[in-house]
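Quick start: load a record and inspect it. Here is Methionine biosynthesis protein MetW:
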Amino acid sequence: MIREDFREILRLVRPGARVLDVGCGEGALLELLTQEKQVDGRGLEISAHGVAACMARGLSVVQGDADQDLDHFPDKTFDYAVLSQTLQATRKPRHVLDELLRIADRAIVSFPNFGHWSVRWSLLSRGRMPQTKALPTPWWSTPNIHLCTLADFMALTQDLGVRVDASAAFAGKGPARAIDPTKALENWRSESCLFLLSRGAPAQRVEPSAVSGDLLIP
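Running the structure step on this input writes:
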């Protein structure tokens, strides 16, 4: 079964594009993009196990650390750099986001939203670090070291001068829902978020289709 955030990434990526999947794990998303969109895909993965699993799928993946090794890629090597549910696990998220948009025309970034109502309620009622569907591991074993809220992420994009071309939210097992990330309510409603980012002159914003709700890419 395809994850809903993977479905959304599939909608956002142009067929045949050059794609770097950063923190690609065992290669499920990269394989999907290769099969469904015929992308020229590459992967960067920190774990040897993940790299071996990707190679077993026939994917082009190298072992590396996003915090350090993105610096070695030339400018604009890719059309898209994808960072799926990984930003919060990096040591230098600001630097990583900056590098994604140096090496690629567009970045697709998703992360769990620490401002979701279930996180707030868990912290208020239990007084302990929350465990939710989006954040299932206890604090002492989680790979997440820089959790943020939707509002935090928007502040970072403004600080970096990054343009938000599309944004979507997920809750439970439901499909993606296009959002206006500047609305305070979305910081409560969105269990996890996904953004299409770029730099440069303002462009037509990606909006939901009036018929299907799919995101339309200019």
